[in-house]
Specification:
The complex is a heterodimer. By secondary structure, chain A is α/β, with parallel strands linked by helices. In chain A, helix 1 (19-29) crosses helix 8 (171-192). Chain A has 20 helices and 14 strands. Chain B has helices at residues 3-12, 34-43, 77-82, 96-107, 118-123, 128-134, 159-166, 186-209, 219-225, 232-239, 273-282, 297-300, 304-316, 320-329, 340-344, 347-351, 393-400, 405-413; strands at 25-29, 48-53, 86-90, 111-114, 139-144, 214-218, 256-261, 264-269, 335-336, 356-360, 364-368, 373-375. Chain B is elongated. Chain B starts with a helix and ends with a helix. The chains are: A alpha/beta, B alpha/beta.
Chain lengths: 420, 417
C-alpha cells in the first residue's frame, strides 16, 4: 500500500468559497482525514459564493475542490451543535476556517475556547486582511483584495496607465501558505506537544510576492509603477503576436482565438544574456540585427525596446507560436506559447504530468475533471481517493464511530435539525 | 481546566524563539527568486539553511534595487529580502573537489532546495537518484519552469513563460492588445510557496517511510492553480466557452471591473446583489438603475459599456478616499486601487506589525516584508540578515566539515570556494 504523508492527521474543515476548500483539498490529497462540516443553515452562503469559473452560476468547480473529504452536517448555530463540534475538536489535530473574523467567536468557537478543549489543536483562520487591524472587517472579493493590497496598481501596459482586471486571485496562494504553516505547526507540536493559532491574511500573501518593490520603497522611497510585459533587466521581454496555428486543437479553438479577423495567438519571449540575443538573431536569420549597435548588449536593448519589440513582432507574426517555441528553445532561447484554457487541456506537458484528473461525483450527473495535485512527490505523492460526496454522507461514521453516539441519539439530533 | 492543560495552554501562548522548524537542516543550491524564497520561508521558521553560491554570487545580488541606485553585491534589495536567516558559503561545483564538498554537505542535510535546469543537475551528478545514494533520507526539492518530466522538461523559461503557459496571460489585458503577464516575478514566487508546502509534505512522508524523495515543482503549474486550474475547469465542465480577456473587466457578470475615479482607480465588484443596490443608493438612486435591463448582474454584462458610461462620471467627481469612506460606511465590497506606498504606510500594516527592521553590515538598517501568517506559539521571525558572499565559509568548512584553516587557503587558491 502506498503511504500518504499526512496519514493519521484529522482535520475539521469549515472552508467556504475558495481559499478554505483549496486548503482542505491539499490536506486531503496528502492523506489527512478531512471532515467537512456543512450545514443547510449555511447553504445560502455557499451557493452565493461563486466558484472560480467563468460561469459563476455553476457550482461544480467549487464542488471539485471538496474531493477526498468526509462530509457531515452540523448546525453550529445551535448550542447542542456547537457542543458536538467541541467534542469533535477533542478528536482532531487541525481546524481550518475562513469565515469573516468575528464569526467563530460569535459561535463561541474561537481559538481561546477550543484550545481549552484541546490544547494540541492547530487552528488556522484564513481571512482577507487578518484577524485584527483597521482593515480586518472590510468586505472584499479576490479582485477587490488585489486592489486594496497594491498588486493591481502594477497591472497595466507599460505605455498606458489604465489598470487592467486581474484573473489570478489570492485565495489559492493563501491556501498554499496556510498549508505550509499548518505543517510547520504540526512539526512544532511533535516537538513540544503544543498546538497553536494561525492568523493567515490573504492580502498579505499576495503582497509578499512584491518583495523587491517593497525594498525599493524602503531604500529609495520609490513607488513601483506598472511595467506591462517589460522587465527591469531583460530585453526583449514580452508577448509577441503569432500567426494562426496549424496544430490548433479543434474548430472551437480557431473560432474563439480569432479577433477581428486576426489570430489571437501569442508567444512569450525573454532574453537575459547577449548570447541568447545572438541565438535569437540567428533564428531570425538576420545578421544585420545582431550587429545593430542599438541592440548589441542588454543596456542598449533596454534603451531601444520600442524598436526591438516592433522588429520582433514583424518576425513572430509570420509563424505559429508552437513552431516558434520549438525553434527558439532548440537555439537556447526562453520562449513559450500563450496557452488558452482549451490548449492547456490538450497540452502534452500538462497531460504527461497528469495536471488534470477525472473524479467521480456520486450525486452529479457526470464525473468532474479537476485540477491535479500541484506538486509531484516521488515517494509519497498523495492520492485522490474519494469522490465528491453529498453533505452528511459521513454523519454515521463521525457521530457514531468517532463520538460513540447511539443510533437513536443520532436520529433525534437529525430530526431536531442539529445534524442538519 | 486541569493543571496539566493549564500549563500547556500557558506554554502555548509563550513564544518559542527558535521557530517551529528548528532542527531541520536545509541546503539551498539555487539563485534569484524561487529556490531562495522557498528556503527563506523555512529559515524564518527556524530551519538551518546553508545557501551555496558560486564564487560570483547569486544573480539576485546584481538585480537590485540598490540604496540610492548604487549597485553593490551586498546591497541588492531582492537578495537581502530573500536570503534572511541563512548561512552563506561559496562553492565551485564545476570542480571535482567542489562536488565532493557538496556531497559532504548533503550527507548532513534533511533537504536540498534547488532551481537549476534538470540537465545541469544531472551533469553534476546532483540528480535525485545520485543524491539518494549519498543520503537516502534527503528530500530534494526542484523548482523549474516546466517540471522534471514531460516533453518540455528542458525548455528554458522565466516568470513570463510560466504565466504564458498557465492560461492567465491570455485572459489578462485588453482584447485588442497583447496578453499581459502578471506583475514582477509571480511565477517564481508561486514556485517558492508551493515548493515550501511540498517540501513539508515530503518531510511528513519521510516520517512514514523513512526515505527521502524528489519534490518536482513546475512554476507554470503553480501559476495555473491561481485560476482554479488555469481556467480549464470551465472548459472541461462542458460549457466549452474559452474565457477571454476583456481589459478592465471580467465578463462573467456586471460589475466585475476596475474603473477610473478622480485620482486613480477603484475596483467595483458585486458578487451579492445587495452591494450593487447600496452603490446605487450612494449614487442617489439614479433613474437608469431601474431600467429593466439592469436588474440582473448576469444580464447586465451585455450592457457593460453603457453601465460604465453611467457610473464613471460619478466616480470621476470623487477621489479614492471619499469613495472608500462611502463604500465602508455602506458595507460595500468595492475597494480603492492602492499604490504600494499607500499599503506600506497604511495604519493596517503598522498595526499588524507586518514589517520588520533588520540590520545588515553593508546595507544598514532597513525594513523588510514579513510573513502573511502569524503563528501564536512559534512565531515567524527574521533573526539574522542575509549572508555576505562566503560569510560562513570558515564556520561551515572548518567547524562542520572538518577542513583545517590551511586547507581553506588552498581551496580559495584553487577557486573552489
Amino acid at each position: 500500500m502506498t503511504h500518504l504523508p499526512l496519514e493519521g492527521i484529522r482535520v475539521l474543515d469549515l472552508g467556504q468559497v475558495w481559499a478554505g476548500p483549496v486548503l482542505g483539498q491539499y490536506l486531503g490529497d496528502m492523506g489527512a482525514e478531512v471532515i467537512r462540516v456543512e450545514s443547510a443553515v449555511r447553504q445560502g452562503m455557499q451557493s452565493g459564493a461563486r466558484a472560480p469559473v467563468t460561469d459563476p452560476k455553476d457550482p461544480r468547480a467549487w464542488l471539485a475542490m471538496t474531493r477526498n473529504r468526509r462530509s457531515i452536517t452540523l448546525n453550529l448555530a445551535s448550542a447542542e451543535g456547537a457542543n458536538l463540534f467541541k467534542q469533535l475538536v477533542t478528536h482532531s489535530d487541525v481546524l481550518l476556517e475562513n469565515f469573516s473574523p468575528r464569526a467563530m467567536r460569535k459561535l463561541g468557537l474561537d481559538y481561546a475556547e477550543l484550545s481549552r478543549v484541546n490544547p494540541r489543536l492547530i487552528m488556522a483562520s484564513l481571512s482577507a486582511a487578518g484577524q485584527y487591524g483597521p482593515w480586518h472587517d472590510l468586505l472584499t472579493y479576490g479582485p477587490s483584495l488585489t486592489a486594496l493590497y497594491g498588486m493591481k496598481s502594477l497591472l497595466a501596459y507599460h505605455d498606458d496607465p489604465a489598470v487592467q482586471e486581474d484573473v489570478a486571485d489570492l485565495d489559492p496562494t493563501a491556501a498554499t501558505y496556510a498549508f505550509f504553516a499548518i505543517l510547520s505547526a504540526l512539526e512544532y507540536r511533535e516537538r513540544t506537544g503544543q498546538g497553536q493559532y494561525i492568523d493567515m491574511a490573504q492580502g498579505e500573501a499576495g503582497f509578499c510576492s512584491l518583495g523587491e518593490a517593497v525594498m525599493d520603497y524602503f531604500m529609495n522611497g520609490r513607488i513601483a509603477k506598472p511595467m506591462g510585459n517589460r522587465h527591469p533587466t531583460m530585453a526583449p521581454h514580452g508577448i509577441y503576436p503569432c500567426g494562426s496555428s496549424e496544430e490548433a486543437v479543434g474548430d472551437s479553438v480557431r473560432r474563439s482565438s480569432s479577433i477581428g479577423g486576426h489570430s489571437d495567438s501569442w508567444i512569450a519571449i525573454a532574453i537575459e544574456t547577449d548570447d541568447e540575443w545572438r541565438a535569437l538573431c540567428r533564428v531570425i536569420g538576420e545578421t544585420s540585427l545582431s550587429v545593430d549597435a542599438r541592440f548589441t548588449d542588454t543596456y542598449s536593448r533596454l534603451h531601444h525596446q520600442d524598436e526591438l519589440d516592433e522588429r520582433l513582432s514583424a518576425w513572430t507574426c509570420q509563424y505559429s507560436s508552437e513552431e516558434l517555441t520549438e525553434r527558439l528553445q532548440t537555439a537556447g532561447v526562453a520562449a513559450f506559447p500563450v496557452l488558452t484554457a482549451l490548449r492547456i487541456v490538450e497540452n502534452e506537458q500538462y497531460r504527461a504530468r497528469r495536471q488534470d484528473v477525472q473524479i467521480a461525483a456520486e450525486h452529479l450527473d457526470r464525473d468532474l475533471v479537476v485540477y491535479g495535485i500541484p506538486w509531484k512527490l516521488s515517494g509519497t505523492p498523495g492520492a485522490i481517493r474519494r469522490p465528491v460526496m453529498p453533505a452528511g454522507t459521513d454523519n454515521e461514521y463521525v457521530f457514531g464511530e468517532l463520538l460513540h453516539l447511539p443510533d437513536d441519539e443520532i436520529r433525534r439530533l437529525t430530526s431536531e435539525q442539529i445534524l442538519y | 481546566m486541569t493543571e496539566q492543560t493549564a500549563t500547556a495552554h500557558e506554554a502555548a501562548t509563550t513564544p518559542d524563539n527558535r521557530g517551529p522548524l528548528a532542527g531541520l537542516r536545509v541546503i539551498e543550491y539555487g539563485e534569484f527568486i524561487s529556490a531562495p524564497y522557498c528556503a527563506k520561508l523555512m529559515a524564518n521558521l527556524g530551519a538551518e539553511v546553508i545557501k551555496i553560491e558560486t564564487p560570483n554570487g547569486d544573480k539576485a545580488r546584481r538585480f537590485g534595487p540598490f540604496p540610492d541606485d548604487v549597485p553593490h553585491p551586498e546591497k541588492s534589495g531582492l537578495f537581502l529580502n530573500l536570503n534572511t536567516d541563512k548561512l552563506g558559503v561559496t562553492l565551485n561545483v564545476d570542480t571535482a573537489t567542489g562536488r565532493s564538498i557538496f556531497n559532504q554537505l548533503i550527507v548532513e542535510a534533511d533537504m536540498l532546495i534547488e532551481n537549476n535546469p534538470p540537465c545541469r543537475m544531472e551533469e553534476l551528478g546532483f540528480d535525485f537518484a545520485s543524491l539518494h545514494e549519498v543520503n537516502p533520507r534527503l528530500i530534494v526539492t526542484s523548482i523549474t519552469p516546466f517540471g522534471w518530466t514531460g516533453p518540455y522538461r528542458d525548455y528554458k523559461g522565466h516568470a513570463i513563460q510560466a504565466v504564458a503557459g498557465s492560461g492567465i496571460a491570455h485572459r489578462t489585458g485588453q482584447p485588442d492588445r497583447s496578453p499581459l503577464t502578471t506583475p514582477l516575478s509571480q511565477g517564481d514566487y508561486q514556485g517558492a510557496i508551493h515548493g515550501a508546502a511540498a517540501t513539508m509534505s515530503a518531510f511528513f512522508g519521510r516520517k512514514v517511510t523513512g526515505e527521502g524523495q524528489h519534490v518536482d515543482i513546475s512554476t507554470m503549474e503553480c501559476m495555473g492553480t491561481l485560476t482554479g486550474g488555469a481556467g480549464i475547469l470551465n472548459v472541461l465542465f462542458g460549457t466549452g466557452a474559452e474565457p477571454r480577456r476583456a481589459g478592465h473587466r471580467v465578463t462573467a457578470y456586471y460589475p466585475w471591473t476596475v474603473l477610473p475615479c478622480q485620482d486613480g482607480y477603484v475596483e467595483v465588484i458585486t458578487m451579492q446583489d445587495r452591494h450593487w443596490d447600496s452603490f446605487l443608493e450612494a449614487m442617489g438612486n439614479p433613474e437608469w438603475g431601474r431600467d429593466p435591463r439592469f436588474q440582473d448582474k448576469f444580464a447586465m454584462v451585455q450592457h457593460a459599456d453603457e453601465l460604465d458610461a453611467n457610473i464613471i462620471p460619478w466616480l470621476m467627481e470623487r477621489d479614492r478616499r471619499s469613495l472608500w469612506q462611502e463604500f465602508r460606511e455602506r458595507r460595500i465590497s468595492y475597494q480603492p486601487v492602492h499604490d504600494l506606498g499607500e499599503v506600506i504606510e497604511s495604519d493596517h500594516m503598522r498595526e499588524r506589525g507586518f514589517f520588520q527592521e533588520v540590520e545588515h553590515p553593508a546595507a544598514g538598517t532597513l525594513k523588510y516584508p514579513g510573513a502573511p501568517f502569524k503563528l501564536s506559539a512559534s512565531p515567524w521571525q527574521i533573526r539574522c540578515p542575509a549572508p555576505l558572499l562566503g560569510e560562513h565559509n570558515e564556520l561551515i568548512y572548518t567547524c562542520r566539515l572538518g577542513f583545517d584553516r590551511t586547507d581553506l587557503v588552498k581551496l580559495r587558491q584553487a577557486s573552489i570556494i
